[in-house]
Amino acid sequence: MRRHTSRATALLLGALLVAGCTAPVDDDGASPTPSDTAVDGGTSAPLDPDVAGEPPLEGGEEPPLPPDDAGPTLTIVGLPAGGGAAGLVDDAWCGAIAVGQAPPDGVELEVTGLRTDPGGLETPALACQDVPACLGSTLSQEQHLCAVAVVPPPGADQVRVAVDVRLECAEVTACEEYRASVTPGFWWVLDRPLEAGPATAPSDPEVPDEPEGADEPEGPDEPEGEGSP
C-alpha cells in the first residue's frame, strides 16, 4: 500500500513539471507569438517599422529609385532680343523678335515674362508676323523667334519691352556658358505702327469764324435836308 502511494506521488509531480514547461494557450487555442510575450517587466515590444524597414519586393527586386530632377536652371532678366517694325493687332502693337544669340544644342529658353516701360502695360499672348507668342513659348537653336505684343498708353510714340527667360539645360555648365555669353538687362524699343496713325494729342475744338458784316449795328442815318436850327 505504501509502495503504491509513493508511485502515485511521483506521477503527480512529473505531470506538474511538464505543465510548468508548457507555454500558456490563448482562448482560441493558439500559442502566443514572440511579439506578444512580455519583455522587461511586462511591457510589450512591437517591431519598430523604422528599424525593420520595408519588406523586400516579390522576386527579390530592389525598390525603384526616385526620379532625378529635370536638371539645373538659371535665369536671364532682359534677354538680348529685337526685331523690325511692329504691326497693329486689335489695340496692341505686335512684332516678331529674334534672340540675339541663339542657344546651342542642349540649352532651351523658356519665356517666363515680359516687362514694359512705361510699366504695367498689358502684354497679351498674341501671335503675329507668322511666329507664335513669346509668353509661354520655349526658344531653342531651331526656333528662336517669337512675337511680343503690348497695349500702349494713349498718344505714345514708342514703348520698351524686356524679355525674361529661364534656361533649361541637361548640364549645368552649358547653362552657365550661355548665360556668360550674353549681356542681360536688354530693352527692345517698339515703335508705333504706321497703321496706328500719327500719335497726335487731341486738339482743341475749332471756333467758327464770324460772318462778314457781323459788327455791331450802326445807329439810324439822319434824314437828308435837315440842318441845325
Helical content band: 10-25%
Would you count the extended β strands for me? Answer: 9
Oligomer: single chain
Spatial separation of the terminal alpha carbons: 198 Å
Mean pLDDT: 73
Protein described:
- By secondary structure, the protein is of the alpha+beta class.
- The protein has a domain at 73-195.
- It is 15% helix and 24% strand.
- The protein is built from three helices and nine strands.
- The chain has helices at residues 2-21, 49-52, 172-181, and strands at 73-77, 81-83, 87-89, 92-99, 107-117, 138-139, 145-150, 158-169, 188-191.
- Strands 1, 5, 6, 8 and 9 form a five-stranded antiparallel sheet that branches. Strands 2, 3, 4 and 7 form a four-stranded antiparallel sheet that branches.
- Strand 3 (87-89) and strand 4 form a beta hairpin.
- The longest helix has 20 residues, at 2-21.
- The termini are far apart.
- Mean pLDDT is 73; it is low at 1-6, 15-25 and 30-68.
Label this structure with key terms.
229 residues; alpha+beta; five-stranded antiparallel β-sheet; four-stranded antiparallel β-sheet; elongated; disordered N terminus
Set out the fold topology:
Layout: H1 2-21, H2 49-52, E1 73-77, E2 81-83, E3 87-89, E4 92-99, E5 107-117, E6 138-139, E7 145-150, E8 158-169, H3 172-181, E9 188-191
Describe the structure concisely for a colleague:
The protein is α+β, with helices and mostly antiparallel strands and about 230 residues long. The chain is about 15% helix and about 25% strand.
